[in-house]
Design goal:
The structure is a homodimer. By secondary structure, chain A is of the alpha+beta class. The first copy, chain A, contains 17 helices and 18 strands. In chain A, α9 packs across α11. The longest helix of chain A is centred in the C-terminal third of the chain and has 16 residues.
Chain lengths: ~475, ~475
């Protein structure tokens, strides 16, 4: 039955769209049916790749008619398998890759309109060409797309100053599940005509419609940056340092917490790395300050403020990167933590948030509790302290068996998620729910919230054709 | 029937809440059943005024049980009669006024948690006491409440820099229509656990639940401000001036457009007013720059920038307020426009937005078109040019009959709303839909949007007990 409906659907799509829009060759499909980390494997008979908003609307209308579920996909770089089709082949992949035009970039109005399939790095380049900047960035910038970033409300390393996608999206164009076009691209700064469909679509992981284009806010290009590394005694001191800096300047754009243990792993496993400070410290902060004003002495300002923080004994030591190469080297220490952990052994990652003020205590208390309950493991938190969002990683004991990740790992994740929930936090700060976190979400969310999400999903997508099996428990 | 259900409901509420929570005296009810502008008159048998979140949850559960619709109300200062009960007495007023605690104000985390009934001015004071500021403000600040501001996504005069409530709300606590409590007060900066109920409740005008408390972002207190008045030839030049300033400073916080015609009305009707500039100009800009840094010479900076703008012929003339009294006098000119118009005769107000870059042309073209179609009327736009949001006012011809507002007025509003919609704009930039704009919203919104709003409303409030007859067509 499903197969028959799919055949009619694909035939109908081919009648309306040109042949390039329908991919049925298994070798071309294969790279797109497993998630980025290679954990979840799906099946699909075809990839539909429309090249315009109207074509996406056509495809959605046909999917309605033939009751064929669609799994929207951008760069397939998600961390929760939200763009991976079901294993039973019941859905068809809808790739937005061919919708890759930047419709406009306007330095005056500080807005760009990019189609869903535009790669983040391409948008960075286009903004840069007009002296502006799209400030959100993350590791997958060379592959991830604007549609996926919007549908997962992506974050990254510059959230501290500019927020997640939710803050940067000025308007959304999307095909709603009934095939109608929602056009929010006027990017009105003020508009109070009822519920914000834009906001509902941001972070909906394609379960309420297909994002086809997005209006995005731009900020002035960076004229200069200063990067520093500071040693502190505790995560609390790191947060104090951030508060100290933020009270004195608006230039702080990145602030990452790094435990000594993580730094040691990086120095051990990653070639050509060295610690920035001469002495050891239990915790470290990587600080980036930027300015769009060429006359602003950002290095001098950051150096002065760190000197003050040293005098006030908020930090134990600090050093400013002397040049861009050193700045990159500092960032490499932070960005290599996951790679160094993998080189060391099995590691379990949790992408969590709690209220920012509670994070320093949470990191210490949760790590102690996990290490007590699971002897031999090493737990630690690193990352976006200023956003209340850290990567809480748990490394297997050195004697752990190869199956540790699947066996003890599940129990550890339960414990971490319980601790996060008890602290009023989120078990998914950045990565979304997708397939991988749906069970934990269902286990821990208040019933009223689950019910509300199910009601909204069913109301807007009564046939269940929009990314079934994702996000909503 | 309705009466009987209401009796049982009120009885049940009295069993759970103390007597002060139920008001049935007509004299006490009377001030709250007409809208702020006195245009819409409703009826209700009782006002229920719970004093805690749990009590609101109880009331909503009982309303479910007895199928009694609730109309939530804060300061009753709305502009679209969204808090006015239906005229047939079928609903009960739910006043949040007794929920007026400020639960926390934290300068370190830059967050305050205020209950729905807290008056805006009270929150301003509480933030100020800890050296911080809640930056949203508007004329009704002495009466309007945090719950109402959230439920209407209120704007005001500082939106240019800080955005509407949507940008300032860090988390919402609300009672959903089924009586469950949604608690978003952890105010997580990053949280990707599915659809944002916070964002859905902001601007929902109480049709999807009752906002009981809100976590709000604070910013550093203002150390100094500079206020200036500039004369320009066209609205386009005013926008150029704004872009010129924004490219050179981050201090611009207010930027209001004033046509000469409006200024003349103010000088004619409002005592103790005088024009800031010696010569006449077709258009004017009122500019406010602020700084939180006591060492920042904000007056010097604004004076210097306006000097440059004068040299580059963006503006024809400008003057800086010499002191606070003069700054207040400049603002009084802007704030008195509506009052001066009322003194002059009948005026029809439209609260509209279009894309910011299109606003200068829109103002001129729409005014010309309206004046051509309705001979004798005078149309003009003033207000928040930098947000793409102006008050588009149409004054009756001097010979207009007393019924002009209701008769020709409706046709004029149709025309303005058509022009706004054709320009991709919003027929309600600030004030919401409520009762007053529901017909126009229904007439002009795309059917897909109306359908989506109806589906969401019905899904979350299947019994229709949340502010029936408001917002959703």
């Amino acid at each position: 039955m499903a197969n028959e409906a799919q055949s009619y659907f694909i035939e109908a799509v081919l009648e309306r769209l040109d042949a390039r829009a329908v991919i049925t060759d298994d070798r071309e499909i294969e790279p797109w049916i497993s998630d980025w980390r290679g954990r979840v494997h799906g099946q699909t008979r075809a990839i539909i790749a429309p090249s315009s908003t109207d074509e996406v609307a056509d495809v959605v209308r046909l999917a309605n008619q033939h009751r064929v579920p669609l799994v929207p996909q951008g760069g397939n770089t998600g961390m929760a398998a939200g763009a991976t089709p079901p294993a039973d082949g019941s859905a068809v992949l809808l790739s937005l890759r061919r919708m890759n035009r930047i419709r406009s970039v306007n330095a005056q109005s500080r807005l760009a309109v990019a189609e869903a399939g535009v790669v983040l790095e391409t948008l960075h380049g286009a903004a840069n060409e007009v002296g502006m900047r799209f400030p959100l960035t993350l590791g997958a910038r060379g592959s991830c797309t604007i549609g996926g970033l919007t549908s997962t409300n992506a974050g990254g390393t510059q959230v501290l100053k500019f927020g997640t996608m939710r803050s940067l999206v000025a308007g959304v164009e999307a095909i709603l599940p009934d095939g109608s076009i929602h056009n929010g691209l006027s990017a009105l700064k003020k508009d109070n005509r009822g519920y914000s469909l834009d906001q509902l679509l941001i972070g909906a992981e394609g379960t309420l419609g297909i994002v086809t284009a997005v209006a995005l806010r731009l900020v002035p290009a960076v004229a200069a940056r200063a990067v520093a590394w500071a040693g502190v005694e505790t995560p609390q001191q790191a947060l104090e340092l951030l508060r100290f800096l933020e009270a004195r300047t608006q230039s702080i754009e990145g602030f990452e917490l790094v435990p000594q243990d993580s730094l040691e792993l990086v120095l051990r496993h990653i070639p050509s790395t060295r610690g920035p400070l001469s002495e050891q410290h239990p915790w470290h902060a990587l600080i980036e300050a930027t300015t769009s004003d060429a006359d602003h002495d950002i290095s001098g300002e950051l150096e002065h403020l760190l000197g003050q923080a040293l005098e006030e004994k908020i930090i134990a030591d600090a050093t400013l990167a002397a040049n861009e190469a050193q700045a990159e080297a500092f960032w490499k220490l932070r960005d290599s933590i996951s790679e160094a952990e993998r080189a060391e052994g099995q590691t379990l990652a949790h992408d969590i948030s709690v209220p920012i003020a509670d994070m320093p205590n949470f990191i210490l208390a949760a790590a102690a509790e996990v290490e007590r309950a699971f002897p031999g493991v090493i737990a630690s938190g690193f990352g976006h302290l200023g956003d209340g969002n850290i990567h809480f990683h748990v490394r297997a004991a050195s004697h752990a068996a190869p199956g540790w990740y699947e066996e003890e790992g599940a129990a550890i994740t339960h414990m971490v998620d319980d601790l996060v929930t008890a602290a009023g936090g989120s078990i998914s700060a950045e990565h979304g729910i997708g397939q991988l976190k749906r069970d934990e979400f269902a286990r821990l969310a208040p019933p009223g919230r689950i019910h509300a999400l199910q009601a909204i999903k069913h109301a807007l997508d009564p046939l269940g054709i929009m990314n079934p099996g994702k996000l909503v428990p």
